[in-house]
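name: query_chain
kind: protein
chains: 1
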Amino acid sequence: MSKNFPDASPETLAVQALGVTEPLTGAVTPPVYISSTFEREPDLEYKNGFIYGRADNQTVRQAEAVLTTLEGGVASLLVASGMSAATGVFMALKPGDTALVPEVMYWGVRKWLNSWGAEWGVKIVYYPNDDMTTLRALTEQHRPALIWAETPSNPMWSVTDIAEAARIAHSVGAKLAVDSTVATPVLTQPLAHGADIVMHSATKYLNGHSDVIAGALVTAQDDAFWQRIVSIRKDIGTIMGPFEAWLLLRGMRTLHVRVRAASANAMAIARHFEGHSKVVQMLYPGLPSHPGHATAARQMSGGFGGMLSIRIKGGKQGAVKAAAGLVLFKRATSLGGVESLVEHRRSIEGPESPVPEDLLRFSIGIEKLDDLIADLEQALAAV
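structure:
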């Protein structure tokens, strides 16, 4: 926290990178600390606390401090990718533990759980993302050590009630971890709703410029489970690089303005194309027609995010044709950058995916709204 403005908002502190200036020159932009090793004192101690780059790095610490402030946690860890962050939590479980995970979630994590979860000795049980009654029943039946939530969930954008999921998890002594990549700390702070750990694919909105691969975890308490995750990062060597941490620190300075701009564009596009003659269904939690709208409105503040999906008339053929006709929207994977992207998720995730074949996922950027609407209009006209 800034020593000059201890009561400043998280937004202001993020913009100023906590107000830290470089002590040698007074530079307002933090330097990149790239050393892999550090000198011992004559008494063989490390007075500054740094031993080796695989375990810790000052640039990484600075970015972690900003993220901890944004999420209202007590500690953060930055790792080499979003997958490293997610799998690090599951790897901290013990053989024989059970984890409840949502039916619709980022496909990479689901794929890892299905292929490696069992070999890791963790039992995986799936629950409907927005059905807290079923989640409670499964929790009472299986007594899990961890409940994993993703809200809004990729790419159907269903919404999980974080506060209720936390109550259910804690009723059996389980941890609740929330993938809040899409919501970002600008719109939702899961820890404030009772979650124990927040996960981000920091590649996405936290960085925001499509030039960093990174993952992040934030915890509500520095307990034994958190220390297991800390040890995993150190022992396996998944810490992110210092230059990537510096880019992430730079990206978080503009996080609030980028997320708000993308959210405003996404809301306008969702409203414009809901009921369009070429649209089967518009999936966006900001719309009153969305089944999770009430929950999203309760736990999201200032917007509903920049992600939406559109089911296109004509099945897979119609969806692919619409994507092919887009000009401003780039046909590319990932999300959360300043540029707008579109992706046919089923072809990425494969035949076992729960995603409909007629669905296109859109990451709405911060371009001029009229240009994005015009591009979508002309692409849909060809379907």
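note: The domain at 256-381 is CATH 3.90.1150.10 (Aspartate Aminotransferase, domain 1).
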